[in-house]
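#struct-help
A.M.: can someone run this one for me? Single chain, 300 residues.
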Amino acid sequence: MPIKELDLDLKPVLKNADVRARRRVLSRVLEGSWTALLKGRGMEFAGFRQYTYGDDASRIDWNATLRAKEVLVREFEEYKTVNVLFLMDVSDSMLFTSQPRLKCEYAAEIMFNLATAIADAGDNVGYAIFSDHIIAKQLPGLGREVVYRLAQDLMNGEHYGGGSDFKQVMNLVNSMLHQRSLIILISDFIGMPQGWERYIQMFSTRYDLIGVMVRDPHDFQLPHAGVQLVLRDPNVKDDTLLVDVKQYAEAFNEEAKREERYIESVFEKAKGGFVKIDTSKDPFDKLIAYFRKRAKIIKG
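D.P.: on it. Structure tokens below:
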């Protein structure tokens, strides 16, 4: 169900002096992180040219040579920019909060600030906002126009809420994205369908992948106050449960930790990145620390 009143205005976020300063820091950190990985190793096919003495024989394309009836070699050029595609989950589970902002509002600000930092670094930015289908999308492109278009889509309350069909959305993204890219998947990863791990593995073979898990404190720890809570599954209509906090809090907290560890392990096995963001804390510090650590790992 779409949000009737979305408390999300990204225009002040774009102009706020403190946020702008922190975005500049993040932009520099990003430049030393994934660009060292992607730009440094990425080579793109640029075309053919006639073989000349001294060329590397392994670059001869024999099929093209037979067609042209002259020896041709493949030419490559290094990637000059990085293509970054954000995937943001806006399904019903992202509408929950125990904080001043909904998880989706918090995630939207993270996505917007990262996208702005990436654009400022001169790289291509694109996005797909999804629930059980892709609600709004933009293929990676350069310039502030993409950032402003992203802001408009993120501030549209009609884009939020609904079911979740992770598999279908991932298949659609895979079919529409043809260039080599870095994908940043933002979700709470709650209620993932059976077999979702295969899609993470599939994506990691074609793209560089980072999972950003956005969770409310009550997603991983039941509140201490009160004796009983009424819980509702956002994905199942009229599904409510009365829970004795004292009896089930410890079991719930342990299960939540186990689930988070498992989700992180899925990304690790796929050789993707992973960072958890707590909506009760400032996301900038966590993101900057994560990408700094990533840059050190890349550089060895």
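A.M.: thanks! The mean pLDDT is 82.
D.P.: also worth noting: The two ends are 47 Å apart (CA to CA).
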